[in-house]
Write a structure and sequence with these properties.
Blueprint (H helix, E strand, L loop, with lengths): L1 H19 L1 H9 L4 H24 L4 H32 L6 H21 L1 H10 L3 H30 L7 H26 L20 H13 L2
Helix pairs in contact: 1-2, 1-3, 3-4, 3-5, 3-6, 4-5, 4-8, 5-7, 7-8, 7-9
Length: about 230
């Protein structure tokens, strides 16, 4: 029991180290220091924070949806990362990066962990509106805005981190940064499509719980419809 508590403390210590001293943490990734332990800790901590955030948004509908979303939200971010990771790694290697797959993966996990912490930091606000309003469309748009802001912050972190990690590999640096910008757009599109495939995360009021919905329409059309209902269009 004590050993498990100590292990959990170590995991969160790694995450706190990332948040408190980002420069040193990224330098250690660049130098290949303790990549396995860092990746394990970040994977576990980010999954926990995503699960808590997922449970909160799912509780808008029912306890079944809360459990479902607590599983789906970590899966959404991590599966998207796994789908897009090979593209970034192999293109970077092709254009002059000397960093290993482990270093690239640790950097991506660090960015995902930052997103998970930021989402968790919004939990009190989401809970407040969950309790004080039952407007489904507003709740969706609120969370879309939060996911957008946290995603943008994660993208900023990753962009700066990749610049720091590969700054020693001067050959092809400009090309790799262009590839990274393209990859970030690709990651966003894959993520939104996967989110649409894994829905519902919120659950529609007045309907029974379903694990997955039929594939129809797309995320962007649904967002426009939700905005139109709120504005009375």
């Amino acid at each position: 029991m004590m050993q498990n508590q100590f292990q959990a403390t170590r995991y969160f210590t790694v995450l706190i180290g990332l948040l408190r001293d980002r420069t040193s943490f990224l330098d250690e990734i660049r130098d290949g220091i303790k990549l396995k332990s860092k990746s394990t800790a970040l994977l576990i901590c980010s999954s926990i924070f995503f699960a808590i955030s997922g449970a909160i948004i799912g509780s808008f509908h029912s306890w079944e949806q809360a459990i479902s979303s607590a599983v789906k939200l970590p899966a959404l971010y991590l599966i998207t990362l796994l789908i897009c990771f090979p593209t970034l790694y192999f293109f970077n290697v092709l254009f002059g990066s000397s960093k290993t797959a482990g270093q690239h993966f640790a950097m991506l996990l660090a960015a995902v962990s930052v997103i998970s912490v930021l989402l968790f930091s919004f939990a009190p606000i989401v809970l407040f509106f969950l309790i004080s309003t039952r407007n489904y469309q507003f709740f969706i748009l609120l969370n879309v805005a939060i996911f957008t802001v946290t995603g943008f912050m994660g993208i900023q972190f990753l962009y700066q981190g990749m610049q720091s990690m590969t700054k020693e590999d001067t050959d092809g640096m400009e090309t790799r940064m262009s590839i990274l910008r393209f990859w970030l757009v690709l990651y966003a599109f894959v993520g939104t499509q996967l989110a649409w495939t894994l829905r519902p995360f919120f659950g529609t009021p007045g309907t029974s719980f379903v694990l997955f919905r039929q594939l129809e329409g797309n995320f962007y059309l649904s967002l426009v419809q939700a905005l139109g209902e709120i504005l009375g269009f």
